[in-house]
């Protein structure tokens, strides 16, 4: 008998998506599936081109599930942005055959901006605004994915 600790095996990864009109923020879980990590911001071209790029990411990172932020109105009603996110989720399901979960993401982008402010990412000047646009969608995707992971862990009895 040895005192060697058991080494955890990598688990299938989950991708998180923050869908906007011009950009899609993408995050993925770490190899053990506990935390959300920023991956990239996809600048939207056409739905076909965007799905092709996402397909490459799904294969490269071994994505088995996806989480899409569902930006409901503050009243809880489905508006145009939520419809767009729901259509995107359906496209992911149809194109890649993976489970796709919708997560209420009200105020996630606002929260992402707050985190960037707290970490010193400037909103000032053209370069500050450009840099911020590149990362705010990734931060929102991380928040969406992490909230899903936390809810799943709580439901499974882990904290």
Brief summary of the model shown:
47% of the residues lie in helices and 22% in strands. With 159 residues, the protein is α/β, with parallel strands linked by helices.
Highlighted features:
single chain, alpha/beta, 159 residues, globular, five-stranded mixed β-sheet, Nucleotidyltransferase, domain 5
Order of helix and strand elements from N to C terminus = EEEHEHEHH
How many DSSP E strands? 5
Task: Please give the largest β-sheet.
Answer: 5 strands, mixed
Amino- and carboxy-terminal Cα gap = 30 Å
Helix content: 40-55%
CATH homologous superfamily assignment: YqgF/RNase H-like domain
CATH topology grouping: Nucleotidyltransferase, domain 5
Question: Any guess at the CATH architecture?
Answer: 2-Layer Sandwich
- Unreliable residue runs: none
| Amount of beta strand | 15-25%
Tell me the radius of gyration.
17 Å
Broad shape: globular
Written overview of the protein:
This protein is an alpha/beta fold and 159 residues long. It has one domain (13-152): YqgF/RNase H-like domain (Nucleotidyltransferase, domain 5), CATH 3.30.420.140. The chain is 47% helix and 22% strand. It is built from four helices and five strands, in the order βββαβαβαα. The protein has helices at residues 47-61, 80-96, 108-118, 125-155; strands spanning 13-19, 23-29, 36-43, 63-70, 100-104. A five-stranded mixed β-sheet has the order 3-2-1-4-5, sandwiched between helices. A hairpin with a 6-residue loop joins β2 and β3. α3 packs across α4. The longest helix has 31 residues, at 125-155. It is globular, with a radius of gyration of 17 Å. The protein starts with 12 loop residues before the first strand and ends with a helix.
């Amino acid at each position: 008998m040895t005192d060697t600790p058991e080494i955890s095996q990598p688990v299938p990864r989950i991708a998180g998506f923050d869908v906007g009109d011009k950009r899609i923020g993408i995050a993925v879980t770490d190899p053990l599936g506990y935390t959300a990590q920023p991956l990239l911001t996809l600048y939207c071209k056409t739905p076909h081109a965007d799905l092709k790029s996402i397909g490459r990411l799904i294969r490269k990172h071994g994505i088995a599930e996806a989480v899409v932020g569902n930006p409901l109105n503050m009243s809880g009603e489905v508006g145009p942005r939520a419809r767009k996110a729901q259509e995107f989720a359906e496209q992911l399901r149809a194109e890649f055959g993976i489970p796709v979960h919708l997560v209420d993401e009200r105020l996630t982008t606002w929260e992402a901006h707050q985190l960037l402010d707290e970490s010193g990412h400037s909103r000032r000047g053209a370069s500050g605004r450009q840099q911020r646009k590149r990362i705010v969608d990734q931060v929102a995707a991380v928040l969406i994915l992490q909230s899903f992971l936390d809810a799943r862990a709580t439901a499974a009895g882990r904290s």
